[in-house]
Amino acid sequence: MNIDRDIKTIAVATPYDDEISELNDQLNNTYIHYGQQGKSYKNKQLKQDANQEGYSTANAVSRTISKSSKIYSNSHWDLLDAYESDSTIILSLDKNTLPDSLQVLEQKEIEAVVKKKAEERASIQHKIAENAVKREKYISQNQGTPSTETLGDRMIKTIQKEAKKNGFVFE
């Protein structure tokens, strides 16, 4: 079995990519760093976004879709994720580690900002999810037949071949 491991993944551009990219910018504006390393982690997140965009728009869009999912959580540096896990985080915050605009606010005001940003984030995530569904449909309808066999394709064929030798039947 020979598979060219150097074949690049084909990134399919869609009419939904620009909107998803714009939504990513909006999503990034909902992150509120906190803690000693919070600002550094937020900057790393933005750098990774830029790295993916440098590779391809489709790659950046895939990252955005992943970031908008429920499994993407940054409770160790993002105040919204931390608050969702434990609303008492507001009581123990070191205000000096927050963005400048929040350092002057009282706890109740910070909590109000967090709740408002959380609603905004949920709305953006919903829009990204809707566009992701449209994007996947577009790709499945317009991708065509791949010209080269992928590792996954070859593995499935090989497993089925070996299974048939051992009496398994595929329907």
SSE layout and pairing:
Layout lengths: L16 H12 L9 H18 L1 H11 L11 H7 L14 H4 L3 H36 L8 H15 L6
Helix pairs in contact: 1-3, 1-6, 2-3
Oligomer: single chain
What is the domain total for the residues?
1
Mean of all residue-level pLDDT scores: 89
**Overall number of strands:** 0
Instruction: Give unreliable regions as ranges.
Output: none
- The radius of gyration computed from the alpha-carbon positions, rounded to a whole number of angstroms, is 22 Å
Class computed from helices, strands and strand pairing = mainly alpha
Helix content: 55-70%
Span of the ends, CA to CA: 25 Å
Tell me the strand percentage band: under 5%
Number of helices: 7
Shape: elongated
The biggest beta sheet reads:
none
SSE ordering: HHHHHHH
